[in-house]
Amino acid sequence: MIELAAVELRLVRLPLVAPFRTSFGEEREKEAILLRVETRDRGTGWGESATFPFPRYSEEWNEGAWIVLRDHLIPSLLAGGPLAPAPEDVGPRLAWARGHRMAKAAVEMAVLDAALSAQGVPLAEHLGADRDRVPCGVSVGIPGSVDDLLARVGAYLDAGYRRAKLKIEPGWDVEPVRAVREAFPDAHLSVDANAAYRLEDAAIFEALDGLGLSMIEQPLHHEDLWDHARLQARLATPVCLDESIRSAADAALAIELGACRVINVKAGRVGGLLEAVRVRDVAVEAGVLVWCGGMLETGIGRAANLALAALPGFTMPGDTSASDRYFADDLTEPFVLAPDGTMAVPRGPGIGVEPRPDRLEACTVRTERITA
Ligand code: SMG
Ligand code: MG
Q1: Is the Cβ atom of 27 under 6 angstroms away from ligand 1?
Q2: How confident is the model at residue 83, as a pLDDT?
Q3: What's the 322 CA to ligand 1 centre distance in angstroms?
Q4: Which residue among 296, 306, 320, 324 is best mutated to probe the pocket of ligand 1, counting the most ligand atoms within 8 A of its Cβ?
Q5: Is the pTM of this model over 0.90?
């Protein structure tokens, strides 16, 4: 049982080491909402929202998440009395609010961190992880030129990354991907369109189909499972869904329709780590592969991603890259890639990391504390 006393919201900004461009826009810095829950007698816990400053990846964005957290989710969390068992109680208590999954996931992460820290249990162990290191991939943004892309992919593969995911968009697809395949014939490669195409563009995917990709991620509109099923039927390469899957129920429907053979699991997108585990359950049961995605998280969210990536069923390398792929100076102690392309899953209780106080202060744009 946990009794919550207050929640502090904190908007942070960290410059990215290089701009990250996708089909829907460019990020030059990571702006995130951190959440710190304070309990009456069980210490504190940290969570991070997967939202970005603009509602481009999904409907959610930082300012919207801040308001729904401050005015709705946190007040109803605090008003409901003690949580027991704490993490499992969060989802049902916030279920009255429709959507806002990334905001809800941040609350759940913070409560999980507090509850498990108090018990001395690492998050990975609590979720059922069966390994202490995970193989890591890297997501490569849309660069200025094919030469630039080849240099970036080469550097990441040299660093040990086990899979390179190339962002694509109309006008930047078959030619650059073919160039990467020719330069790195044996590399584990995938592509991610972030919903930038329509079924009428199927010829582009048929051209990509011959390039030995391990998957084509979210090629079509995020609300169009049926067209994804029709596209998958035309391709040998597995379709992977990201934006389209917001719950375990979505996963079951997509699989039933034949809309994907792989699912990118992000706790934020599906409303929390516990629902992410249920997405894994549905997928594995159906023989659909899963891996852990990323949202350019700071070390706080990254720690939780690594715990998720360590669960049985997460067989493919995730977008769980090292801190230095994003930031010159992360909020936490940096996550470091080993030369074999793996990273250690945090071993400490809860999420296993905390922000470094000086770095946290330096990155903070504003804070607001909500009390019971
Ligand atoms: O965390 O390394 C990361 C980013 C991985 O490509 C990534 N995420 O569609 O999978 C995706 C994107 C969403 C964020 S784009 C700003
Ligand atoms: Mg994606």
Answers
A1: yes
A2: 87
A3: 14
A4: 296
A5: yes
Cα separation, 165 vs 163, in Å, equals 7
Nearest-Å Rg of the Cα atoms of the chain is 20
- Ligand 1 atom showing the smallest separation from residue 25 Cα: 16
Q: Which residues of 120-157 are buried (b: 16+ CB within 10 A; e: fewer)?
A: eebbbbbbebeeeebbbbbbbbbbeebeebbebbeebb
Whole-angstrom distance, CA of residue 295 vs CA of residue 235 = 27
Tell me the H-state helices in 138-247. Answer: 146-159, 174-183, 202-208, 225-234
Protein residue whose Cα sits closest to atom 14 of ligand 1:
295
Q: Which pair of structure tokens corresponds to residue 51?
A: 């939202």
| Per-residue model confidence (pLDDT) at position 87 | 86
Question: What would the two tokens of residue 243 be?
Answer: 């934006």
List the catalytic residue out of 30, 104, 165, 266. Answer: 266
Quick check: is 104 catalytic?
no
- Rounded-to-integer distance, Cα 194 and Cα 142, Å: 12
Nearest of 15, 294, 323, 19 to residue 142 by alpha carbon: 19
Is the beta carbon of 139 within 6 A of some atom in ligand 1?
yes
Mutation probe of ligand 1 site: the residue of 270, 319, 326 with most atoms within 8 A of C-beta: 319
| CB distance 89 to ligand 1 below 6 Å | no
pLDDT of residue 120: 97
Q: Would the CB of 319 count as within 6 Å of ligand 1? A: yes
In tens, the pLDDT along 14-55 reads: 999 999 999 999 999 999 999 999 999 889 999 999 999 999
For the chain, helix, strand, coil in percent to 5 are: 40, 25, 35
Comparing CA positions, the residue from 281, 279, 274, 282 lying closest to residue 307 is 274
pLDDT tens string 104-156:
999 999 999 999 999 999 999 999 999 999 999 999 999 999 999 999 999 99
- 38 pocket-lining for ligand 1 (C-beta < 6 Å): no
Report residues of the chain scoring pLDDT below 70. none
Q: What is the pLDDT of residue 350?
A: 98
